[in-house]
Specification:
This protein is mostly helical and 441 residues long. Helices cover 80% and strands 0% of the residues. It has one domain (10-200, 220-432): MFS general substrate transporter like domains (Growth Hormone, Chain: A). It has helices spanning 14-48, 53-84, 87-106, 111-114, 117-147, 153-181, 186-193, 195-206, 213-220, 228-235, 237-246, 248-267, 273-301, 303-326, 330-357, 365-380, 383-394, 397-415, 422-428. The protein is globular.
Protein backbone atom coordinates (compact mmCIF):
# COMPACT_ATOMS: atom_id res chain seq x y z
CA UNK A 1 0.00 0.00 0.00
CA UNK A 2 2.81 2.38 -0.85
CA UNK A 3 2.01 5.95 -1.80
CA UNK A 4 4.79 7.20 -4.07
CA UNK A 5 5.78 10.84 -4.00
CA UNK A 6 4.47 11.31 -7.53
CA UNK A 7 0.96 11.34 -6.18
CA UNK A 8 1.50 13.45 -3.11
CA UNK A 9 0.53 16.76 -4.72
CA UNK A 10 -2.81 15.27 -5.80
CA UNK A 11 -3.61 13.70 -2.46
CA UNK A 12 -6.24 15.06 -0.11
CA UNK A 13 -5.71 15.23 3.63
CA UNK A 14 -6.35 11.84 5.33
CA UNK A 15 -8.75 13.60 7.69
CA UNK A 16 -10.81 15.05 4.84
CA UNK A 17 -10.97 11.78 2.90
CA UNK A 18 -11.77 9.59 5.89
CA UNK A 19 -14.50 12.01 7.00
CA UNK A 20 -16.04 12.05 3.52
CA UNK A 21 -15.95 8.24 3.45
CA UNK A 22 -17.56 8.13 6.87
CA UNK A 23 -20.43 10.43 5.89
CA UNK A 24 -21.18 8.38 2.79
CA UNK A 25 -21.04 5.14 4.78
CA UNK A 26 -23.42 6.62 7.35
CA UNK A 27 -25.96 7.46 4.64
CA UNK A 28 -25.73 4.00 3.06
CA UNK A 29 -25.91 2.33 6.47
CA UNK A 30 -28.96 4.36 7.41
CA UNK A 31 -30.66 3.22 4.21
CA UNK A 32 -29.76 -0.41 4.79
CA UNK A 33 -30.60 -0.52 8.50
CA UNK A 34 -34.00 1.13 8.34
CA UNK A 35 -35.03 -1.84 6.24
CA UNK A 36 -33.91 -4.24 8.99
CA UNK A 37 -35.92 -2.33 11.58
CA UNK A 38 -38.97 -2.10 9.33
CA UNK A 39 -38.72 -5.80 8.42
CA UNK A 40 -38.69 -6.83 12.07
CA UNK A 41 -41.43 -4.48 13.23
CA UNK A 42 -43.77 -3.70 10.30
CA UNK A 43 -43.33 -5.53 7.01
CA UNK A 44 -44.60 -8.97 8.04
CA UNK A 45 -48.23 -7.85 8.14
CA UNK A 46 -48.07 -4.90 5.75
CA UNK A 47 -46.51 -6.65 2.76
CA UNK A 48 -47.17 -10.34 3.39
CA UNK A 49 -50.75 -10.17 4.65
CA UNK A 50 -50.48 -12.63 7.52
CA UNK A 51 -51.89 -12.41 11.02
CA UNK A 52 -49.49 -15.06 12.37
CA UNK A 53 -46.60 -13.04 13.89
CA UNK A 54 -43.78 -15.58 13.46
CA UNK A 55 -44.78 -16.34 9.84
CA UNK A 56 -44.85 -12.66 8.96
CA UNK A 57 -41.48 -12.06 10.60
CA UNK A 58 -39.97 -15.04 8.79
CA UNK A 59 -41.29 -13.70 5.48
CA UNK A 60 -39.96 -10.19 6.08
CA UNK A 61 -36.59 -11.54 7.23
CA UNK A 62 -36.49 -13.55 4.00
CA UNK A 63 -36.67 -10.27 2.06
CA UNK A 64 -33.98 -8.89 4.39
CA UNK A 65 -31.83 -11.86 3.38
CA UNK A 66 -32.38 -11.08 -0.32
CA UNK A 67 -30.47 -7.82 0.14
CA UNK A 68 -27.58 -9.68 1.73
CA UNK A 69 -27.57 -12.27 -1.03
CA UNK A 70 -27.16 -9.49 -3.60
CA UNK A 71 -24.25 -7.87 -1.77
CA UNK A 72 -21.59 -10.22 -3.23
CA UNK A 73 -22.78 -9.19 -6.71
CA UNK A 74 -22.44 -5.55 -5.67
CA UNK A 75 -19.03 -6.36 -4.22
CA UNK A 76 -17.95 -8.00 -7.47
CA UNK A 77 -19.03 -4.98 -9.52
CA UNK A 78 -17.43 -2.56 -7.06
CA UNK A 79 -14.20 -4.52 -6.98
CA UNK A 80 -13.99 -4.85 -10.75
CA UNK A 81 -14.75 -1.21 -11.52
CA UNK A 82 -12.97 0.09 -8.43
CA UNK A 83 -9.75 -1.51 -9.67
CA UNK A 84 -10.36 -0.42 -13.28
CA UNK A 85 -12.07 2.99 -13.11
CA UNK A 86 -11.24 4.14 -9.60
CA UNK A 87 -12.59 3.99 -6.05
CA UNK A 88 -14.35 7.36 -6.27
CA UNK A 89 -16.47 6.43 -9.31
CA UNK A 90 -17.84 3.36 -7.59
CA UNK A 91 -18.67 5.32 -4.44
CA UNK A 92 -20.82 7.76 -6.41
CA UNK A 93 -22.90 5.10 -8.17
CA UNK A 94 -23.28 2.90 -5.10
CA UNK A 95 -24.70 5.78 -3.08
CA UNK A 96 -27.06 6.74 -5.90
CA UNK A 97 -28.37 3.16 -6.30
CA UNK A 98 -28.80 2.64 -2.58
CA UNK A 99 -30.54 5.95 -1.99
CA UNK A 100 -32.87 5.66 -4.96
CA UNK A 101 -34.05 2.20 -3.91
CA UNK A 102 -34.60 3.34 -0.32
CA UNK A 103 -36.77 6.32 -1.29
CA UNK A 104 -38.86 4.12 -3.61
CA UNK A 105 -39.46 1.59 -0.81
CA UNK A 106 -40.95 4.40 1.22
CA UNK A 107 -43.42 5.07 -1.60
CA UNK A 108 -44.45 1.45 -2.22
CA UNK A 109 -48.10 0.38 -2.07
CA UNK A 110 -49.01 -2.13 0.64
CA UNK A 111 -50.49 -5.59 0.12
CA UNK A 112 -53.98 -4.20 0.74
CA UNK A 113 -53.43 -1.62 -2.01
CA UNK A 114 -51.67 -3.67 -4.70
CA UNK A 115 -51.93 -7.33 -3.68
CA UNK A 116 -49.01 -9.61 -4.55
CA UNK A 117 -47.36 -6.83 -6.59
CA UNK A 118 -46.43 -5.11 -3.31
CA UNK A 119 -44.04 -7.80 -1.97
CA UNK A 120 -42.64 -8.36 -5.47
CA UNK A 121 -41.69 -4.69 -5.77
CA UNK A 122 -40.31 -4.75 -2.23
CA UNK A 123 -38.05 -7.68 -3.07
CA UNK A 124 -36.81 -6.05 -6.30
CA UNK A 125 -35.94 -2.81 -4.52
CA UNK A 126 -34.28 -4.76 -1.72
CA UNK A 127 -32.11 -6.42 -4.36
CA UNK A 128 -31.02 -3.00 -5.63
CA UNK A 129 -30.29 -1.96 -2.04
CA UNK A 130 -28.12 -5.02 -1.60
CA UNK A 131 -26.12 -4.30 -4.75
CA UNK A 132 -25.60 -0.66 -3.72
CA UNK A 133 -24.55 -1.52 -0.18
CA UNK A 134 -22.28 -4.30 -1.43
CA UNK A 135 -20.52 -1.81 -3.68
CA UNK A 136 -20.09 0.76 -0.92
CA UNK A 137 -17.71 -0.63 1.68
CA UNK A 138 -14.61 -1.48 -0.36
CA UNK A 139 -14.34 1.90 -2.02
CA UNK A 140 -15.01 3.83 1.18
CA UNK A 141 -12.35 2.12 3.29
CA UNK A 142 -9.78 2.09 0.49
CA UNK A 143 -10.15 5.82 -0.04
CA UNK A 144 -9.37 6.29 3.66
CA UNK A 145 -6.61 3.69 3.96
CA UNK A 146 -4.83 4.59 0.72
CA UNK A 147 -4.64 8.27 1.69
CA UNK A 148 -3.39 7.49 5.21
CA UNK A 149 0.20 7.27 6.50
CA UNK A 150 1.17 3.60 6.85
CA UNK A 151 1.59 3.67 10.63
CA UNK A 152 -1.79 5.38 11.17
CA UNK A 153 -3.75 3.27 8.72
CA UNK A 154 -5.63 1.52 11.52
CA UNK A 155 -6.95 4.80 12.86
CA UNK A 156 -7.90 6.39 9.53
CA UNK A 157 -9.31 3.10 8.28
CA UNK A 158 -11.57 3.02 11.33
CA UNK A 159 -13.08 6.42 10.55
CA UNK A 160 -15.31 5.18 7.68
CA UNK A 161 -16.37 2.33 9.97
CA UNK A 162 -17.86 4.93 12.30
CA UNK A 163 -20.41 5.53 9.55
CA UNK A 164 -21.99 2.15 10.36
CA UNK A 165 -22.98 2.92 13.98
CA UNK A 166 -23.81 6.48 12.95
CA UNK A 167 -26.13 5.15 10.26
CA UNK A 168 -27.70 2.72 12.70
CA UNK A 169 -28.07 5.49 15.27
CA UNK A 170 -29.81 7.68 12.70
CA UNK A 171 -32.01 4.79 11.54
CA UNK A 172 -33.25 3.85 14.98
CA UNK A 173 -33.59 7.48 15.96
CA UNK A 174 -35.66 8.08 12.83
CA UNK A 175 -38.06 5.29 13.80
CA UNK A 176 -38.36 6.48 17.40
CA UNK A 177 -39.05 10.03 16.19
CA UNK A 178 -41.41 8.85 13.45
CA UNK A 179 -43.44 6.74 15.89
CA UNK A 180 -43.91 9.81 18.09
CA UNK A 181 -44.97 12.07 15.20
CA UNK A 182 -47.03 9.80 12.93
CA UNK A 183 -49.52 6.98 12.99
CA UNK A 184 -50.22 4.05 10.68
CA UNK A 185 -48.04 3.48 7.62
CA UNK A 186 -46.36 6.87 7.92
CA UNK A 187 -44.42 5.53 10.91
CA UNK A 188 -42.31 3.35 8.60
CA UNK A 189 -42.65 5.41 5.38
CA UNK A 190 -41.17 8.65 6.75
CA UNK A 191 -37.68 7.21 7.59
CA UNK A 192 -37.39 5.84 4.04
CA UNK A 193 -38.52 9.01 2.31
CA UNK A 194 -36.24 11.34 4.29
CA UNK A 195 -33.29 9.40 2.87
CA UNK A 196 -33.51 11.60 -0.24
CA UNK A 197 -32.01 14.56 1.64
CA UNK A 198 -29.25 12.45 3.22
CA UNK A 199 -28.22 10.91 -0.10
CA UNK A 200 -27.96 14.34 -1.75
CA UNK A 201 -25.67 15.51 1.07
CA UNK A 202 -23.57 12.35 0.86
CA UNK A 203 -23.05 12.66 -2.90
CA UNK A 204 -22.04 16.31 -2.59
CA UNK A 205 -19.43 15.50 0.06
CA UNK A 206 -18.01 12.51 -1.80
CA UNK A 207 -17.60 14.41 -5.05
CA UNK A 208 -15.37 16.91 -3.23
CA UNK A 209 -12.50 14.45 -2.59
CA UNK A 210 -9.76 13.36 -4.98
CA UNK A 211 -9.19 9.83 -6.26
CA UNK A 212 -7.08 7.41 -4.24
CA UNK A 213 -3.32 8.00 -4.78
CA UNK A 214 -2.72 4.24 -4.94
CA UNK A 215 -5.16 3.92 -7.85
CA UNK A 216 -3.66 6.96 -9.60
CA UNK A 217 -0.24 5.30 -9.30
CA UNK A 218 -1.26 1.96 -10.83
CA UNK A 219 -3.10 3.88 -13.56
CA UNK A 220 -0.02 5.99 -14.35
CA UNK A 221 2.17 2.88 -14.38
CA UNK A 222 -0.28 1.00 -16.65
CA UNK A 223 -0.73 -1.76 -14.06
CA UNK A 224 -4.53 -1.87 -14.25
CA UNK A 225 -5.73 -5.47 -14.52
CA UNK A 226 -8.28 -6.30 -17.21
CA UNK A 227 -10.32 -8.65 -15.00
CA UNK A 228 -9.22 -7.87 -11.42
CA UNK A 229 -12.04 -9.75 -9.69
CA UNK A 230 -11.34 -12.93 -11.65
CA UNK A 231 -7.61 -12.62 -11.07
CA UNK A 232 -7.88 -12.18 -7.32
CA UNK A 233 -10.30 -15.10 -7.08
CA UNK A 234 -7.72 -17.28 -8.81
CA UNK A 235 -4.65 -16.08 -6.93
CA UNK A 236 -6.02 -15.22 -3.47
CA UNK A 237 -9.22 -17.24 -3.11
CA UNK A 238 -8.02 -18.66 0.22
CA UNK A 239 -7.71 -15.15 1.64
CA UNK A 240 -11.20 -14.29 0.40
CA UNK A 241 -12.64 -17.37 2.13
CA UNK A 242 -10.72 -16.52 5.29
CA UNK A 243 -12.13 -12.97 5.31
CA UNK A 244 -15.63 -14.45 5.04
CA UNK A 245 -14.92 -16.51 8.15
CA UNK A 246 -13.39 -13.53 9.94
CA UNK A 247 -16.61 -11.56 9.52
CA UNK A 248 -18.93 -14.14 11.05
CA UNK A 249 -18.72 -12.84 14.63
CA UNK A 250 -18.99 -9.20 13.61
CA UNK A 251 -21.69 -9.24 10.96
CA UNK A 252 -23.59 -12.27 12.27
CA UNK A 253 -23.61 -11.11 15.87
CA UNK A 254 -24.51 -7.61 14.76
CA UNK A 255 -27.67 -8.53 12.89
CA UNK A 256 -28.79 -10.98 15.54
CA UNK A 257 -28.33 -8.28 18.19
CA UNK A 258 -29.98 -5.48 16.23
CA UNK A 259 -32.49 -7.02 13.81
CA UNK A 260 -33.44 -10.43 15.23
CA UNK A 261 -33.63 -9.10 18.79
CA UNK A 262 -36.38 -6.66 17.80
CA UNK A 263 -38.62 -9.59 16.89
CA UNK A 264 -37.32 -11.92 19.63
CA UNK A 265 -38.46 -9.73 22.52
CA UNK A 266 -41.97 -9.67 21.05
CA UNK A 267 -42.14 -13.37 20.20
CA UNK A 268 -40.81 -14.36 23.64
CA UNK A 269 -42.95 -11.71 25.39
CA UNK A 270 -40.00 -10.57 27.50
CA UNK A 271 -39.68 -6.88 26.62
CA UNK A 272 -40.53 -4.20 24.04
CA UNK A 273 -38.94 -3.14 20.77
CA UNK A 274 -38.23 0.28 22.25
CA UNK A 275 -35.85 -1.20 24.84
CA UNK A 276 -33.86 -2.94 22.11
CA UNK A 277 -33.84 0.24 20.03
CA UNK A 278 -32.54 2.26 22.95
CA UNK A 279 -29.84 -0.32 23.63
CA UNK A 280 -28.86 -0.20 19.97
CA UNK A 281 -28.80 3.59 19.99
CA UNK A 282 -26.68 3.81 23.14
CA UNK A 283 -24.27 1.17 21.85
CA UNK A 284 -24.07 2.94 18.49
CA UNK A 285 -23.46 6.30 20.14
CA UNK A 286 -20.57 4.83 22.12
CA UNK A 287 -19.36 3.23 18.89
CA UNK A 288 -18.76 6.69 17.38
CA UNK A 289 -15.74 6.87 19.66
CA UNK A 290 -14.90 3.23 20.34
CA UNK A 291 -14.15 2.45 16.69
CA UNK A 292 -11.52 5.19 16.63
CA UNK A 293 -9.98 3.94 19.88
CA UNK A 294 -9.82 0.37 18.62
CA UNK A 295 -8.38 1.54 15.28
CA UNK A 296 -5.72 3.60 17.03
CA UNK A 297 -4.94 0.67 19.33
CA UNK A 298 -4.48 -1.62 16.33
CA UNK A 299 -1.72 0.67 15.05
CA UNK A 300 0.12 0.18 18.36
CA UNK A 301 -0.49 -3.43 19.41
CA UNK A 302 -1.54 -4.94 16.07
CA UNK A 303 -4.68 -5.78 14.14
CA UNK A 304 -4.92 -9.38 15.35
CA UNK A 305 -4.99 -8.80 19.15
CA UNK A 306 -7.75 -6.19 18.84
CA UNK A 307 -9.74 -8.43 16.50
CA UNK A 308 -9.35 -11.47 18.77
CA UNK A 309 -10.61 -9.51 21.75
CA UNK A 310 -13.92 -8.95 19.97
CA UNK A 311 -14.16 -12.53 18.67
CA UNK A 312 -13.52 -14.10 22.08
CA UNK A 313 -16.01 -11.76 23.73
CA UNK A 314 -18.60 -12.90 21.17
CA UNK A 315 -18.00 -16.53 22.15
CA UNK A 316 -18.37 -15.81 25.86
CA UNK A 317 -21.30 -13.37 25.68
CA UNK A 318 -23.78 -15.31 23.53
CA UNK A 319 -25.68 -17.00 26.37
CA UNK A 320 -25.28 -14.18 28.96
CA UNK A 321 -26.69 -11.68 26.46
CA UNK A 322 -29.94 -13.64 26.15
CA UNK A 323 -30.10 -14.26 29.91
CA UNK A 324 -29.92 -10.52 30.51
CA UNK A 325 -32.60 -9.83 27.92
CA UNK A 326 -34.83 -12.60 29.26
CA UNK A 327 -35.10 -10.76 32.59
CA UNK A 328 -37.34 -8.27 30.76
CA UNK A 329 -35.92 -5.37 32.77
CA UNK A 330 -35.33 -2.35 30.58
CA UNK A 331 -31.87 -1.66 32.02
CA UNK A 332 -30.81 -5.27 31.42
CA UNK A 333 -32.01 -5.26 27.80
CA UNK A 334 -30.26 -1.96 27.08
CA UNK A 335 -27.08 -3.17 28.80
CA UNK A 336 -27.00 -6.48 26.91
CA UNK A 337 -27.41 -4.88 23.49
CA UNK A 338 -24.94 -2.08 24.24
CA UNK A 339 -22.25 -4.45 25.56
CA UNK A 340 -22.60 -6.69 22.53
CA UNK A 341 -22.00 -3.77 20.19
CA UNK A 342 -19.18 -2.22 22.23
CA UNK A 343 -17.06 -5.31 22.96
CA UNK A 344 -18.08 -7.80 20.27
CA UNK A 345 -18.80 -5.82 17.11
CA UNK A 346 -16.71 -2.65 17.47
CA UNK A 347 -13.17 -4.06 18.01
CA UNK A 348 -13.62 -6.43 15.08
CA UNK A 349 -15.19 -3.97 12.70
CA UNK A 350 -12.72 -1.19 13.52
CA UNK A 351 -9.71 -3.14 12.23
CA UNK A 352 -11.32 -4.88 9.25
CA UNK A 353 -10.70 -2.00 6.86
CA UNK A 354 -6.95 -1.77 7.47
CA UNK A 355 -6.31 -5.48 8.09
CA UNK A 356 -8.22 -6.71 5.06
CA UNK A 357 -6.83 -4.08 2.67
CA UNK A 358 -3.27 -4.88 3.73
CA UNK A 359 -3.68 -8.43 2.39
CA UNK A 360 -3.89 -7.55 -1.33
CA UNK A 361 -1.80 -5.62 -3.92
CA UNK A 362 -3.22 -2.28 -5.04
CA UNK A 363 -4.30 -3.35 -8.55
CA UNK A 364 -6.69 -6.04 -7.22
CA UNK A 365 -7.24 -4.68 -3.71
CA UNK A 366 -10.74 -3.34 -4.28
CA UNK A 367 -11.82 -6.69 -5.71
CA UNK A 368 -10.18 -8.72 -2.95
CA UNK A 369 -11.66 -6.93 0.02
CA UNK A 370 -15.06 -6.39 -1.61
CA UNK A 371 -15.50 -10.07 -2.48
CA UNK A 372 -14.42 -11.25 0.96
CA UNK A 373 -16.39 -8.66 2.88
CA UNK A 374 -19.61 -9.16 0.93
CA UNK A 375 -19.25 -12.92 0.67
CA UNK A 376 -19.90 -13.03 4.40
CA UNK A 377 -23.20 -11.26 3.79
CA UNK A 378 -24.62 -14.35 2.08
CA UNK A 379 -24.47 -16.10 5.45
CA UNK A 380 -25.20 -13.05 7.60
CA UNK A 381 -28.38 -12.23 5.72
CA UNK A 382 -29.81 -15.62 6.56
CA UNK A 383 -28.96 -15.48 10.26
CA UNK A 384 -31.99 -13.49 11.52
CA UNK A 385 -34.18 -15.96 9.61
CA UNK A 386 -32.27 -18.95 11.05
CA UNK A 387 -32.31 -17.45 14.55
CA UNK A 388 -36.09 -17.00 14.35
CA UNK A 389 -36.52 -20.59 13.18
CA UNK A 390 -34.24 -21.90 15.95
CA UNK A 391 -36.19 -19.97 18.54
CA UNK A 392 -39.38 -21.53 17.23
CA UNK A 393 -37.86 -25.02 17.58
CA UNK A 394 -35.68 -24.99 20.73
CA UNK A 395 -36.27 -21.60 22.35
CA UNK A 396 -33.78 -18.85 23.16
CA UNK A 397 -30.81 -21.18 23.68
CA UNK A 398 -30.68 -21.85 19.91
CA UNK A 399 -29.86 -18.31 18.75
CA UNK A 400 -27.70 -17.77 21.86
CA UNK A 401 -25.43 -20.70 21.03
CA UNK A 402 -25.39 -19.64 17.39
CA UNK A 403 -23.80 -16.33 18.41
CA UNK A 404 -21.05 -18.18 20.28
CA UNK A 405 -20.38 -20.48 17.32
CA UNK A 406 -19.98 -17.44 15.05
CA UNK A 407 -17.40 -16.06 17.48
CA UNK A 408 -15.47 -19.34 17.42
CA UNK A 409 -15.30 -19.31 13.61
CA UNK A 410 -13.92 -15.77 13.53
CA UNK A 411 -11.42 -16.42 16.32
CA UNK A 412 -10.07 -19.49 14.53
CA UNK A 413 -9.65 -17.56 11.28
CA UNK A 414 -7.96 -14.64 13.06
CA UNK A 415 -5.35 -16.88 14.65
CA UNK A 416 -4.26 -18.04 11.19
CA UNK A 417 -4.01 -14.49 9.77
CA UNK A 418 -0.67 -12.70 9.54
CA UNK A 419 -0.14 -9.46 11.42
CA UNK A 420 0.22 -6.43 9.13
CA UNK A 421 0.38 -3.34 11.37
CA UNK A 422 3.70 -1.72 10.30
CA UNK A 423 4.74 -0.66 13.81
CA UNK A 424 4.22 -4.18 15.17
CA UNK A 425 5.92 -5.89 12.23
CA UNK A 426 8.88 -3.54 12.57
CA UNK A 427 9.31 -4.35 16.26
CA UNK A 428 9.21 -8.09 15.59
CA UNK A 429 11.47 -8.17 12.53
CA UNK A 430 12.84 -4.89 11.13
CA UNK A 431 14.07 -6.70 8.01
CA UNK A 432 10.49 -7.36 6.88
CA UNK A 433 9.37 -3.73 6.85
CA UNK A 434 8.39 -2.74 3.32
CA UNK A 435 8.12 -6.35 2.20
CA UNK A 436 5.17 -6.62 -0.25
CA UNK A 437 3.60 -9.49 1.62
CA UNK A 438 3.67 -7.75 4.99
CA UNK A 439 1.96 -4.38 5.15
CA UNK A 440 2.95 -1.90 2.48
CA UNK A 441 1.40 -3.42 -0.63
Amino acid sequence: MNQPSATQDAKDSPFKVSFASMIGSAVESYDFFIYGTAAAAFFGKIFFHTNEPIIGILASFATLAVGFLMRPFGGYLAGHYGDRLGRKTVLFWSLLAMGGATVLIGALPTYEQAGVLAPVLLILLRMVQGIGFGAEWGGAVLMACEHAPAKRRGFFGAVPQVGIPLGLLLANGAFLLSSSLFEGNWVWRAPFLVSFVMVAIGIFIRLSVKESPAFETIKAEARIVKRPAMQVMRSDWRMIVKIIGLRMAETGGYYITTSFMLSYVMLAHVSTREHVLWGTMIGSAIGLGSHLVYGMLSDRVGRRPVFLFGAVFTVLFGVPMFLLINTGAAIMVVTAVSLSLLFSHDPIFAVESSWFSEQFPANVRSSGISLGYNGASVVAGLLPFIATALFGIVGWIGPALMVSVLGLISAWCAISMRETAPAVVERRDPATVGHPRVSTR
